[in-house]
Structure prediction request, 530 residues.
Amino acid sequence: MQPDAAIILQIRGLHAFYGESHALHGIDLQVHEGELVTLLGRNGAGKSTTLKCIMGAIPRRLGSIRLRDREVVAAPSDRIARLGAAWCPEHRGIFSSLTVEENLLLPPVIARGGLSVEEIYTLFPNLAERRRSQGTRLSGGEQQMLAIGRILRTGARLLLLDEPTEGLAPVIVQKIGDAIRQLKTRGYTILLVEQNFRFAAGIADRHYVMEDGLVVDHVLAADIGTATDRLHEYLAV
Amino acid sequence: MDLIFGVPAPLLLGQLILGLVNGATYAILSLGLAVIFGMLNVINFAHGAQYMLGAFTAWMMANWLGLGFWYALFLAPLVVGAAGIVLERVFLRHLYDKDHLFGLLFTFGAAMVVEGLFRYQFGSTGQRYANPLPGGLQLGFMFLPYYRALVVPAALVVCFGTWFVIERTQLGAYLRAATEDPVLVRAFGINVPVLITLTYGFGVALAALAGVMAAPIQNVSPLMGANVIIAVFAVVVIGGLNSIMGAIVTGFSLGVIEGLAKVFLPETSDTVIFVIMAIVLFLRPAGLFGQEK
Ligand SMILES: Nc1ncnc2c1ncn2[C@@H]1O[C@H](COP(=O)(O)OP(=O)(O)OP(=O)(O)O)[C@@H](O)[C@H]1O
Ligand SMILES: [Mg+2]
Prediction:
């Protein structure tokens, strides 16, 4: 990251609610252009909820979320997408009534500069072989590749990736890690939710730690050695 | 005279063709219901009333505005579809996250109100609608009016056109995906609420189109929708509530089966659909073409 890189995402005092239940209690975080930042934290800490809030996929949210210069905390989610944020949800969201290729081509292009379909197939060769299959016939790892791949075509520059390694075999985790590193080199800005600390430590510039709906710590990649014990404590079950 | 299974061939062929004509109405109506259910999760009990409205709009256009059948064929579905869009925007959209039962009760109530108003205004005897294509073909075993002969291929074009858009185009991919996960599709930048509204409008327009097409064949009566809609619900249950192809194939097939029943077991012709529905529900609860969730 350039030290003076523009702030792409700025969250201030964000609260989120599922019906009556209060899931985020005023969180602050920011992400600069070209950075790869992780959100770490235990089950139920509020990591996915944070991504859903940025994407506008939760009905009740309060506080401030700025994408570049625009306030989007009250914006509908289709508008947020058109401002350049793209979401790869925890449940992956591969559509069973669509083929692999239809899944890949589903998100509309919102700006120039996205990857071409061929580039996506080069990044994830497994998908090319299965392009005619029903989306949900893919293995878990392939579905994850598809879920990441399809948001690369649209020209969105801020990627919100929710636990892309969850439940996957080590070789696949490594492939996904390689792909994410390549995306960073290509200049994408990435906010990555992870529980797999070793995976996150290997690729990120900075880490936020969440607990009970709050951001409780912030660690730079350079300081990770001294912070390891503290982080293990946050993440221990 | 030739006999087929002990039945005179002209009678059998005649009923088969009439069955196909009825099947055309079933297919278009059940297709509209399936499209609406897939996208809105609402069982549109107003479908019969909207079919009736299509026929009456054509009748009113002819009698009050002097607009002939071919105008009505396009304009009546537009008018009734637009009314459907208003209904969706004002009322239905508040019911999506509630139980199915609310949408069903609301549309049922709306249908009762509309049908009641039309009965009050027009009585229940019904109005005649002039045949736009007089004449017909002498087939030897029967006289086939041109108009009825045209209804079947026209319905096929409408049904397969709709199938093509849903299964083979990008717009159709948005619709299929939004049926599965509307929140995610919206987060891709697609205005899902508008998609839902247009889908309802389209489903209602299909019902109205079936009504216009039925007008020259049947009496245009406030009760025509109530009479047909129960059979159409059986059709979508048999085909599978969420299956487009199921609605089309089952619609035509059941028209034909009803026609055959009239020949072989006349006293069962009104109930045969429901017997089939019961058997299908027993063996394949998701319907012949439906997918278990
Ligand atoms: N759909 C929902 N309805 C109600 N409460 C929810 C819903 N989703 C999440 N929550 C609650 O909100 C809180 C934060 O959940 P969230 O999914 O953001 O956690 P997370 O950090 O992503 O956890 P995980 O690592 O398990 O994915 C939890 O207490 C959870 O129970
Ligand atoms: Mg989560």
